[in-house]
Amino acid sequence: MSVQKDLKLNPDETLGVVQSLYEKKIVTYPRTDARVLSSAVAKEINKTLNKLLRFKEIGDINNNVNTIINEKWYSKLLKSKYVDDTKITDHYAIIPTGEGLEGYNRLNSIEKSVFELILRRFLSIFYPAAEYSKISIEVNINNEYFYSNEKVCVEKGYLVIANNKEEKEEKSESNLNKIRKNSPIELMELNIKEGETSPPKYYTSGSIILAMENAGKLIEDEELREHIKGAGIGTSATRAEILKKLERIEYIQTNKKSQVVHPTLKGELIYETIKTSIPSLLNPKLTASWEKGLKMITEGEIDSEEFMCKLENYIKDNVKRVLSNNNVIDYSNALEGLCSEENTKLSKSDLDEVLGICPICRVGHIVKNAKGYGCTNWKSGCKFFIADICGVTISPVYLRQLITSGKTELIPGFVSKKGNKFSARLKIDDNNIIMDFN
């Protein structure tokens, strides 16, 4: 995740950088899902540390390696949570080899940054855990109770080497230690904080990889979940390529700066078609059932021909269902919009801001333009359009709520003709967008 957040690299770019470091013999094999080391590697880890002693290009690293060796912290590694042969299939976690470091200065800046992340994460496992002092505060003011929990780092432990840029500035321990039970406090200020629940955040190129790894957790069937446990969607060698392919065929797009992943118009069309025709294809339960079948083949419970026959029948049956399904949404108008800007009166930048399928005509897509939000199917008579309402500019978050569930959360800040402020929901009622005050 640090690579995606700090260096703005997508998974395919990251894999390419680590592959380059591997080919230069600086790190171990990169195409692995493992987050642990093998016992064989752990027994020889002091040799790797001694090789790293020669590396003095990054300020504090040499001193930290010296500390690990002198304190013999490496001797505890074999019995730690970082070593587990049962969690390794082909290759253990990515670590520095201690080799090839004479070529460090010939690496480009990205390679150096990625190597430093790998190196610091590796050295962190030898350090003690960070220790925090925690305090719970309960304050009684005129029989009204207020609660707070605070913590302060008292021993940095592995944070010394992890160099965690996201670590927040710690509160002063001395200030917390001054607080005693039943001691009076001075009330400086009282504020009421208003907030709203937020929809889930978009995936980033980093978080979607983790979601693919852990897709099996979404399966309720315990037996099937066990078959996909530790596997998920794709492998460490293929997940980045899967995302790259989805971008290449224009099903998704990734913001280069934020690394946020969005579905494209074409991707939404494909999703809605599959959701309507072959919903099982969107369920990781299907992948788990295939994994179960493959395991049964390896254990001799069924032969490969029987499995392939079932798979072939599944494909044939569902292709027929797609072709004969009268409930599939007519996307012809929207598809024309992908091929011709003239048909939809949309520029390429408009097409990049598709918010979803129109909830009224179910054919066009809702896009944002200079005047507000409208439907790409306007030419065929769809009347969906939202601009500023009573002084409020409707955000894309509320628009997506309206599109997906037919109504929004309570929106504050509307102003009546008399100048009074009020809150309301937007709701679709009989193909009209109305205000709902319930």
Structure description:
There is one protein chain. The chain is an alpha+beta fold. It folds into 4 domains: 1-126, Orthogonal Bundle (Topoisomerase I, domain 4); 131-168, no CATH class; 205-331, Topoisomerase I, domain 2; 354-436, no CATH class. It is 38% helix and 14% strand. The chain contains 18 helices and 11 strands. The chain has helices at residues 2-7, 11-23, 39-43, 45-52, 61-70, 109-124, 159-162, 173-177, 207-213, 222-228, 239-248, 265-277, 284-298, 304-324, 332-339, 341-344, 348-351, 396-405; strands at 131-141, 144-155, 252-254, 261-263, 354-357, 365-368, 373-375, 385-386, 411-415, 421-429, 432-436. The longest helix has 21 residues, at 304-324. Mean pLDDT is 81; it is low at 164-171, 326-334 and 336-352.
User: If strands are numbered along the chain, what order do they take across the biggest sheet?
Assistant: 5-6-7-8
Order of SSEs, N→C? HHHHHHEEHHHHHEEHHHHHHEEEEHEEE
- The CATH topology name of the largest domain reads Topoisomerase I, domain 2
- Please identify the structural class as seen in this structure: alpha+beta
Estimate the global geometry from the Cα principal axes. globular
Total strand count, please? 11
